[in-house]
Structures are given as C-alpha cells and as structure tokens.
Amino acid sequence: MNCNVPKPLIMSIDVTYKCTMRCLHCFNGSNENELESELTDEELLYLADQIIDIMPNVICFCGGEPLIRREILYLCCEKIVKGTNGYTKVNIVTNGELVNNEVARNLRKAGFNLIQVSLDGAKPETHDWLRNKIGSFNKAVNAIKCLVEAGLYVGVAFTPTLRNIPEIDEAIKLCEQLGVCEFRVQPLMVMGRAKRNLNGYIPTYRDYQILATKLKWLQLQQIAKKGMNVEWGDPVDHLIRSNYRESGYNPFIGIDAYGYLRISPYLPLTFGNIRRHRILEYWNSGLSNVWNLPIVKWISKQIRATEDLDLSSKGFKEVYWEKSVDIDLIEDDISEVKPEQFFAKN
C-alpha cells in the first residue's frame, strides 16, 4: 500500500446478519433485516486476500452469528494468518450456541487469536431473558469450556442492564473459574431492538459511573494478582476523538455484510463497497483521513454520549434498519452531499 499513508490498524467484517437468536438488545437487528444480498464465500475469500495486502493489526469477524458461516471463516483465517506470517491477529465474536469441542478445535487449527463469547448474567434466567432464548446460558458456558479446553484465548462480553448489573460480581467470578482471559463491559447501545424492547431496563448515566468505577478498581486488582483482565469500554469514544484528530486519520475500517465500508457502526453513512473497488483503492482515495470531511464531522457531532446513539430519534435514517447514505469516495462528488440526505423519509 502507499507508504505515505498510515495503514488501518483495526478492521471488522460482518459476515452475516443471520443469527441463531433474536436478542432483545441487538442493535443491528440480526435475523430481522436483510437490506441486500450478503457477501458470498468467494467475496469473503477475496476480502481475505485484500486484508493480507493491508496487514492490519487486528481483524474481527462479527455478525449476526459468524459461526453460521464457520467453514468459510476457517479458510479465511488460515489464509490471513499464513499470508501475514501471523502479524494480523484474527478474532471472532459469538453467542456460543454453535460451539462444541469440534468447532473449538477447528477454530484453534485455523489460527484464530481471540474468541469472544457473550455472557450477560451469572444466572440462566437472566442471560436467557436478554438473549430471548431458553438454554442460551448453558450453551454459552459450555462454549467457553470447549474453547478453553482447546487452548484458545477466550474473552467474554457482558452487556449491562438494570436486571443483570447486580450479578456482575458473580459473573466475573464464574468467568475466572471457567478460565476466561478477559471480561469486557460497555454501555448498552440503545439502538435497534434495544430501544424497542428494553424500556425500563436501561442504566442511567449515574449507574454507568458507578459500574465503570467498580470495574476500574477490579481491573487494578486483577492486574495485581495477574488474573483475568477486566475492561470497561466506551462505544462513543471514537466519535468524540474524531473531532480532535488534526490529520483526520481513520484507524478503523468496518465492512458490513453487504460489502459497504464503514468508519463507525453507529453512523448512517458508508464510503463505497468492496464489490465496486478494492479496499486499498478507497483507502488511498480519502478513506484514510475521512474524519476530516465536513459532512463526517457534522454527523459525528450528533453523538456525544451513549444516549445519543439512536440518531433515528432525531429523524436520521436508522442504521442497519434502513439503507445508509453511501458516499463512494472513488465515484461520487463529496461536495454534492447534503445533510438532508441523511434524514429518513416519512
């Protein structure tokens, strides 16, 4: 790639929006929305070749439930790990339902670095409620056991609600007992199904302050005893930081299941499609410093806190539920893009 342009450090690919569950909080409406045809196996392999050329630090396969397409993901991971000599770490997120000993061994054999399993409570009834499926807690716990037994680095993602926050100490203890390496928490994204289903269960800003402080303290304790890593994440941090990057440098590229290029999963805005041009062509045509664009600055400033994530409440198109505005950095004239294009039509 162009040596004068910094490379993207982190990439993600939504390999499908199909899922084995219908979670109450799913922000992209997995298993509910299909706006276009998803990337084929051949297109995913072609993407793997492009990732080898780019050599990001990390690539993560997301969804939906990525393991629905596990056979092609094994091939993609093997290709990327071999093609970058192990430089690019390949991660995957999963609800755990499709993981058994065989799948865990295949993930290890393919070269996956981190497997993140969702676990949203210390009790079956709590996790099963949020995942909207009886038995999902036991499946997630079994998945963690299989993955740890296979020798994989396992992380857990915990989505806080007013119902499960009281169980977080028990959940952390359970994960330690299971051999989990990292436990990650970030605020509930009140978008998609969460805004439709979780009224009355959404933590307040004060709730998050207390939880974040607690997790920071637990993190220090874990570091001191060299135990499981505990992390608190902020989903809007990249949007706030974007306004202070003088170069407009964009360290992240997301590719949705339809091939569109995204710089944030929360903005109703894409910058072309890998079915039209290669990623590096877009990168060298302005994707590398896309945060400098006035239209990007304008729309990102609409989100200053987690409660602002649902831009559809301000009349914007709903991300993943409606087609986003696509500005093809190679084919379109960016100067012609107007703010009113981002608003949904009644």
Structure description:
With 346 residues, the chain is α/β, with parallel strands linked by helices. The protein has one domain: TIM Barrel, CATH 3.20.20. It is built from 11 helices and 11 strands. The strands form 2 sheets. The chain has a 9-stranded mixed beta sheet with strand order 7-6-5-4-3-2-1-8-9. It has a two-stranded parallel ribbon with strand order 10-11. Helix 2 links the parallel strand 2 and strand 3. Helix 1 runs parallel beside helix 2 and helix 2 packs parallel to helix 3. It is globular. The N and C termini lie far apart (43 Å). The mean pLDDT is 92.
CATH fold name, please?
A: TIM Barrel
State the helix count.
11
Q: What is the C-alpha radius of gyration, as a whole number of Å?
A: 20 Å
CATH class category: Alpha Beta
Beta-strand residue fraction: 5-15%
GO molecular function: catalytic activity; iron-sulfur cluster binding; metal ion binding
Protein name: Radical SAM domain protein
Domain Radical SAM core: 5-231
Pfam families: Radical_SAM (PF04055)
Could you give the topology of this structure?
Layout: E1 10-14, H1 41-54, E2 58-62, H2 70-83, E3 89-94, H3 101-110, E4 114-118, H4 124-131, H5 136-149, E5 153-158, H6 168-178, E6 182-185, H7 192-197, H8 205-224, E7 229-232, H9 237-242, E8 252-255, E9 261-262, E10 269-270, H10 279-283, H11 294-300, E11 325-326
Parallel strand pairs: 1-2, 1-8, 2-3, 3-4, 4-5, 5-6, 6-7, 10-11
Antiparallel strand pairs: 8-9
